[in-house]
UniProtKB/TrEMBL annotation:
Pfam families the record matches: EF-hand_8 (PF13833)
Residue intervals of the EF-hand domain: 61-96
Organism this protein belongs to: Fraxinus pennsylvanica
SUPFAM superfamilies the UniProt entry points to: EF-hand
GO molecular function annotations of the record: calcium ion binding
Designated name of the protein: EF-hand domain-containing protein
Coiled-coil spans in chain: none
Keywords on record: Calcium
């Protein structure tokens, strides 16, 4: 995402993870995917993201920001996000949650 959008982004994933636990957080991410996806295609497309992102408080994102989000999360190169790609992207966009994940991973290896 463009730096302008990052500066306005408030990261709620760590708080959600703390309050809901791992399973609850994944459930909420799946709910978010359902809101943003194109119901006919079963994936998040640029059009569905643009149309539905305001429902999740993302109305100020530019078309460029939305294209960048799709590109950043699109691992299989199909131009859309499936549920797994969306969940991974949400974790990657949460610096604090990623840091917590790295710490837990390091502790597991020790």
């Amino acid at each position: 995402m463009a730096s302008k959008s990052r500066s306005n982004f408030q990261d709620f994933l760590p708080l959600m993870a703390e309050k809901l636990g791992g399973d609850g957080l994944m459930g909420e991410l799946c709910n978010g995917f359902q809101v943003l996806m194109d119901s006919d295609k079963g994936v998040i497309t640029f059009e569905s993201l643009k149309k539905n992102s305001a429902l999740l408080g993302l109305k100020d994102l530019s078309d460029e920001d939305l294209h960048t989000m799709l590109k950043e999360g699109d691992f299989d190169g199909d131009g859309a996000l499936n549920q797994m790609e969306f969940c991974v992207l949400m974790f990657r966009l949460s610096p604090e949650l990623m840091e917590q994940s790295y710490i837990l991973l390091e502790e597991a290896f020790q």
